[in-house]
Amino acid sequence: xxxxxxxxxxxxxxxxxxDSRAFPVVVGTVALAATLSMSVPFATLLVAAVxxxxxxxxxIAVGASxxxxxxxxxxxxxxxxxxxxxxxxxxxxxxxxxxWSDATRWLSAYGVLALLAIAATPLPLTPALMFAGISRLxxxxxxxxxxxxxxxxxxxxAWLASRFPERALQRGQRHAETLRVIVARALSPTPxxxxxxxxxxxxx
Length: 204
Hints:
204 residues; single chain; mainly alpha
């Protein structure tokens, strides 16, 4: 329930600021919040943001990658200070998962390159971040790997959403109706400008 409320709140934030010049910064802030929550999937929000401003897909992806990398860096520091014992006690379900086993094996073998690869794919990032934090990998290398990986992934997502908005609806899930309205607006030959405020209110 909390996750759904947070996800809806972040979506409303995007809708309210879609016409702003600072929209990529807003998307980055939303990415930061979603990453810190460790529960809200940001991909759906990224697709929605691109559909709100399709011509700005590149800057939206850059802003999103910076926000997500910053959030991941904060989590890295938190996990680093928790240490093995408290981490296992706080997140027993994570350390028993197959994602944890894979992440520990890959990071032990390839270091930050494995972290970059995981960040660039839809694989779960949290187990890898936890292991990186308690393994004391260099934070500068960790942040750089996270940013490059996120940037590569979000550029692909954003480009696909801008070029194929109808297919992007498949990622809508909880916000399918909202995304349908956004796509209709984006594909309209004469999209409304400031009238969007009233329709945004209806989407809340």
